[in-house]
Amino acid sequence: MKKILIAGLVCLFLGACGVGTTNTTYSRGQIGKRGSTSTGVIVSMEVITIEGSQTGFGALAGGATGAVAGSAIGGGRGSVLMAIGAGVAGAVAGNLAEKAITSDTSYEFLVKLDRTGEITPIVQSNELGLKPGDHVILLELDGVTRIRSKMPTGY
Description:
alpha+beta
């Protein structure tokens, strides 16, 4: 029972490590700061993969879980060897699990800027339902550029 509880907690913590950012997510440090805007047209978009993180938490949690499970399986002197072996295996598995759980898909938009004609890439989510041909407003804040909205009709 104890092993199942520990494994469940590890999965819960790793699940909380997901990417989860969108083009409408801001950091606390960006609140109240002035940004700049520009306009452009989306010329293309492509689905991309965002690599998962490897903070070490997955390896630590997996190693601890493996060590506890290994020591419970082994008996006598064997429990130490099992704990070490299972701890190492758990750390490797936990690291891989963290990377897989925190990876995500997003979009790379190529936007032709109205002012300069330059084509610039912007990687972000697409909860706005953007598509090639859309006239958009770009917001730059703290060096991060986002496609913030479609241009209202008539502009």
